[in-house]
Structures are given as structure tokens and as C-alpha cells.
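pls design
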């Protein structure tokens, strides 16, 4: 009897340590990434502060609404978007760079992964998206391309004039 109580106590301590470790990992992810959870059909369940700040919404404004609210209308009505959610429901994670739209239709560039989550029976019951806002990087890259294009045009112009 004494041994059984010790074993139960030891198992409980190990479980507590694992739970604490998982909480630490989740807190770390939440501190650095934009995270949003939806059900398997795309209805928003929850989002962390980083996601809400990135998209300029409050949780009350998005909870219970469909993920498509962050997409342009043409994409959200497309076969590709329907397939995107079908693949998630089939357990296929999605990872890429995405254009999404925040409040007031502000374009936001995200590098993100959409991760289907299974319950104990193996059924997908929600999707968690982990994202990083790469909007500033994309804007810098676009500016560099604009400058390169201008330099190439100027070089062509000078070459045609015989200056170079």
C-alpha cells in the first residue's frame, strides 16, 4: 500500500513537471508569434495578443467569425480556399507566406503554418495557426526591387545614348 501511494505521488509529480514544461513552451510561443485557433471549419475560437495586435482587432470582433474575414473576397470565394480548408480537415498542415487583411482592410504579410489538431480519437477538431508578421521585410524587399528596376532603366537609357 505504501509503495502504491509513493508510485502515485511520483507519477503525479512527473505529470506536473510535464504540464509545467508544456505551459512554458506555449507561453514562449505566444510571446513571439501571432497565434489564432479555429475549429475545423474555420470558425475562430481564440487568438493571442500578438495576433490581435498584428491584425488590429479585438478578440470580441473576430471570435465566432470565419477565417475568411482575413482574406480578400476573390480568394475566400475560390476553389483554392475551399481546398485549403479541406486539406486542413484531412490533417494536412499548410505552411507558406500569406497575404491577409487586418482591420480597415490593411494588407498584412504573414509567414505562417496552419496546423490541424487531433483529439484522442484521431479526429481533427481545430486548427492552430502560428504566424510571424513579415510586412516590413516585404516592404523593404519591394523597395529594393523598385530601386534595382530604376537603376536598370537608367543604365539602359545611358547605354542607348552611348554614354556608357
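designed seq:
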Amino acid at each position: 500500500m505504501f509503495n502504491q501511494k509513493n508510485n502515485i505521488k511520483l507519477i503525479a509529480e512527473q505529470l506536473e513537471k510535464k504540464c509545467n514544461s508544456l505551459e512554458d513552451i506555449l507561453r514562449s510561443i505566444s510571446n513571439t508569434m501571432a497565434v489564432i485557433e479555429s475549429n475545423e471549419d474555420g470558425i475562430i475560437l481564440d487568438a493571442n495578443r500578438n495576433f490581435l495586435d498584428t491584425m488590429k482587432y479585438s478578440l470580441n470582433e473576430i471570435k465566432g467569425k470565419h477565417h475568411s474575414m482575413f482574406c480578400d473576397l476573390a480568394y475566400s470565394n475560390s476553389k483554392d480556399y475551399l481546398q485549403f480548408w479541406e486539406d486542413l480537415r484531412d490533417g494536412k498542415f499548410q505552411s507558406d507566406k500569406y497575404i491577409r487583411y487586418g482591420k480597415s482592410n490593411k494588407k498584412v504579410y504573414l509567414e505562417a503554418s496552419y496546423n490541424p489538431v487531433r483529439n484522442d480519437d484521431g479526429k481533427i477538431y481545430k486548427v492552430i495557426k502560428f504566424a510571424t508578421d513579415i510586412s516590413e521585410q516585404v516592404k523593404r524587399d519591394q523597395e529594393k526591387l523598385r530601386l534595382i528596376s530604376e537603376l536598370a532603366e537608367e543604365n539602359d537609357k545611358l547605354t542607348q545614348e552611348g554614354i556608357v
